[in-house]
Amino acid sequence: MIRIGFLSNAASDGMSNITTAIGARNERNLRALRIARERSVFKGRADDLIVNWGRGSGNDYLEARVGLGGLLNKTQNVALATNKLKSFQAMDGEVSTVEWTADREQAQVWIDAGLPVYARTKLQGHSGEGIVVCSREALGDVGGIETSVGLVEAKLYTKGFNNQRREFRIHVMNGVPTFVQQKKRRENWRDNALYSNVVRNFHTGWVYAAMDIHPNDKSLAEAVKAVTAHGLDFGAVDVITRGDDAWVLEVNTAPGNEGTNTEYYADNFVRIARGEDPVHYTQRVREVAPAAEEAADENFALEAEPVVAPVAPAPRVRPRPVEEVAAAVPAADRGQVNNIQPVDKKFYFLEINGEETVGQWSRQLSGFMVVGFAMSIPKNEVTIKREVA
């Protein structure tokens, strides 16, 4: 019998979800269990696999539980990932990361250049804890996030961006990207008093979506390199992309999961326990259910986008399929850029984050309805190429 034991640093819904999913397989020679965080007498056998779920201390206790079994994620490597400064130091020169510094003078140069700077007053905070967003002028859409006009004293600073980008979470196991999610605004985000565009998590109006997302090749490669640089066997890597480029933000060693993501974690842990390779996410991308969204957590954004004035609630506009409207325009005409004022319910070729797509303008929503986006996209976040005939 193969036993897969999970040992965490604290209570974890994500870990519980995975153990439950493994148990639900009802396989006779497979068992998943949660190991007590202290005073457990469990000891691994040769066929067992022990999963360290975010535990960065108590190595002797963990090793005693592993016994003769295999281990995923050593405590010292988890500790490295959870300390934001040490994490960036481990990736320095090996991974494409956002620019960072522990030097306040360097951070001040970024402020003087008109860029937002994320000051980490706590090196092991999560879900935005210990982050102060600093800038030369007051930012909009900050929600309940702490901000400062001017730089504050901190242990780590990361440089922000003043242009559009996408944010992904890429789950990696044994060098294989197994699941990818993208941060998107929640339904009714305009009604959320805590909505923030400078720190993005569930409480500030964001979710992880898994449908119709398109991470670039570099983001996948850098995510794998980030997990490797920390000496980890698995981790969830937060990455931002723009065009074909990508920058790693952080590596999470106890990531939240539910639904499809949980099933993939469970299946891949079982595969590893049996000596098999994890399944690459592109082999399963068609299996993701349309409603696959999770609460976005732990990560912060790296730009302050223009403030979008709230509008009255309105019915959702159902766009035609992209293929249908795209076929109406000759390919040679699709790259034309015009200064166009969109007309209600008209379709337009758009460029969003360097990618061409089609969207329908909604005057009521003050934005474009685009296939693959959970919410309408404001006009100031897109380039209007031309009207679809």
Plain-language structure description:
- The protein has helices at 13-23, 59-66, 75-82, 84-91, 104-112, 217-229, 260-273, 322-326; strands at residues 2-8, 30-34, 49-53, 70-72, 100-101, 117-120, 131-135, 147-149, 156-159, 166-173, 176-185, 206-209, 234-242, 245-252, 293-295, 347-352, 355-362, 367-370, 383-387.
- The protein is globular and about 70 Å long.
- Helix 1 (13-23) packs across helix 7.
- A hairpin with a 2-residue loop joins strand 16 and strand 17.
- The chain has 389 residues and is an alpha+beta fold.
Distance between the termini: 63 Å
Under the CATH scheme, which architecture of the domain at 164-295 would be assigned? 2-Layer Sandwich
Q: If strands are numbered along the chain, what order do they take across the biggest sheet?
A: 14-13-10-11-12-15
Could you give the order of the helices and strands?
EHEEHEHHEHEEEEEEEHEEHEHEEEE
- Could you state the oligomeric state of the chains shown? single chain
- Fold-level CATH name of the domain at 164-295: D-amino Acid Aminotransferase, Chain A, domain 1
Structure summary, number of beta strands: 19
Shape: globular
CATH class placement of the domain at 164-295: Alpha Beta
Uncertain residue ranges: 288-292, 298-337
Portion of residues in helices? 10-25%
Give the full name of the CATH homologous superfamily of the domain at 164-295.
Answer: ATP-grasp fold, B domain
What structural category characterises the helix and strand content?
alpha+beta
Largest sheet: 6 strands, antiparallel
Radius of gyration: 22 Å
The whole-number mean of residue pLDDT values reads: 82
Total number of helices: 8
**Percentage of residues in strands:** 25-35%
